[in-house]
């Protein structure tokens, strides 16, 4: 009962000075000020006949009919800056993942775009580290810049840690886990800065992880031949 009286006293001293209807009206006005005006006629609807300058591409093998090898999807940002969303715009059922088939896919997309007067001003493609798709996008979209997904880099690194039997040590040894995390974080540096940073960093990673460090150097720092 004492607690109840205290609460009542508190609310009695701090009564709201704004009425609920006024508060709701204020919120509605603020929302209208930030919202895009709805078109009043079809003539006011302007749909840009183009696609964004960068694509995010990935394939999945688990959710695909048995007749096919993978479901390949292309995602792009859609909408204005304030309400931009990444949406899947292209779904492709593929029978394999050869460079030739990727090349055919990108050629077909170019043909569809040309037939429908759609501008494919592609400048950046973000994919996993699959060489076949990277080569195909380079061939079909000259001048495009390929960037690889950090999530896939992390997956690849964790598989390597498992393969060399360092899972338990990674969980127990802070020096080891932090060192390997810093190793993969080299991806956030400029490409020209990575080799020198790698040379410095690898000196501080415990020797038990030499197999991981050497694999990372060959695959991502020097690049596979």
TrEMBL record:
InterPro entries: MULE_transposase_dom (IPR018289). It holds the Pfam family MULE. Residues 55-154 form the MULE transposase domain. This is 26790_t:CDS:1.
